[in-house]
């Protein structure tokens, strides 16, 4: 079952946020469900079709939003005192770094997307409208 899989993950990687998420983490989950997930099929269409410059602004909004939420999550993993958590959290630096490595790709991919949208000449090009 999925609940058993979640329990196994949380135990193996000492991730109590998955079993007992703080309120701010729940807010990020709602943002993911209602803002980020709807973006995926739109972005997939734009990138698979190619040449869709209109994806630049939504991609910048998406990537900065995700990066901002991940900075908070990574800071929580690195600095929070998990000894008071009901579920086992990371205690040693090694355990914190292992858990950090699980969340890190969710930061790196949006940062790569942001870098692409800001630096790729294809997406930076602004068409000037002709005046009559």
Automatic annotation (TrEMBL):
The chain crosses the membrane at residues 27-48, 60-79, 99-123. It is a multi-pass membrane protein. Its main location: endoplasmic reticulum. PROSITE patterns: EXPERA. Residues 1-114 form the EXPERA domain. GO terms for cellular component: rough endoplasmic reticulum membrane. The keyword Kinase does not apply. It comes from the Eukaryota. It holds the Pfam family EBP. Keywords: Endoplasmic reticulum, Membrane, Transmembrane, Transmembrane helix. The keyword Lipid metabolism does not apply. It is found in: Rough endoplasmic reticulum membrane. PANTHER family: SIGMA INTRACELLULAR RECEPTOR 2. Belongs to the TMEM97/sigma-2 receptor family. This is Sigma intracellular receptor 2. The gene is Tmem97.
